[in-house]
């Protein structure tokens, strides 16, 4: 990817790189998400419930074929934008903070990724994750409805699912479970970014 004169990637380049990685991940892992959704929405006493991962994968492939393995794939690809928006927002906030420090003379002009404080990394991680979650959460609702064994036959596809949710539940139906979803992922997000940034700085400081 072409960088600017200072060696920085543009916002759209961060977005594109994240989207490409997310699309590959979504395609490779969609069957696992189908199994996960169905196992989370049943108990061991539910008739025909999957007993485990391999049982679920083999039965899904045998009973529903490729279509079953990739049920909910379209919403999952829409969901690629989640990671793309998150990383773009995070990197743009870091760039903005470093540009501000450059202008104030706190760091050298040629320092593109100066170490920030733990609080700054946490604020950026939380802000970027929350922004991405709010912007893209409806895809998770659609994917869950299409992958859930109990509701999969109620919808003929993504468009039909969107219409029925909007008709029966209104726009709020697309955001069911948003708050607990954000609260659930924020600790992991903060830890991931803190470790990533600190390891990056460690290797940069100790590079030969």
From TrEMBL:
It is a multi-pass membrane protein. This is Mitochondrial carrier domain-containing protein. SUPFAM superfamilies: Mitochondrial carrier. It comes from the Eukaryota. It is found in: Membrane. One of its GO terms (cellular component) is membrane. Keywords: Membrane, Repeat, Transmembrane, Transmembrane helix, Transport. Belongs to the mitochondrial carrier (TC 2.A.29) family. Solcar repeats lie at residues 9-96, 116-202.
């Amino acid at each position: 990817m072409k960088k600017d004169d200072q060696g920085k990637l543009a916002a759209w380049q961060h977005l594109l790189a994240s989207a490409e990685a997310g699309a590959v991940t979504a395609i490779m892992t969609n069957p696992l998400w189908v199994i996960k959704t169905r196992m989370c929405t049943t108990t061991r006493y539910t008739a025909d419930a999957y007993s485990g991962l391999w049982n679920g994968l083999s039965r899904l492939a045998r009973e529903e074929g490729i279509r079953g393995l990739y049920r909910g794939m379209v919403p999952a690809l829409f969901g690629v934008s989640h990671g793309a928006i998150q990383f773009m927002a995070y990197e743009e906030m870091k760039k903005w903070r470093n540009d501000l420090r450059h202008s104030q003379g706190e760091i050298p002009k040629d320092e593109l990724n100066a170490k920030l404080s733990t609080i700054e990394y946490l604020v950026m991680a939380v802000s970027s994750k929350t922004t991405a979650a709010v912007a893209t959460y409806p895809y998770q609702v659609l994917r869950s409805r299409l992958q859930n064994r109990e509701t999969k036959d109620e919808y003929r596809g993504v468009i039909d699912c969107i219409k029925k949710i909007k008709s029966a539940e209104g726009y709020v139906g697309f955001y069911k479970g948003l708050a607990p979803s954000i609260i659930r992922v924020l600790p992991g997000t903060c830890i991931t970014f803190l470790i990533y940034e600190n390891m990056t700085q460690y290797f940069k400081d100790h590079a030969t």
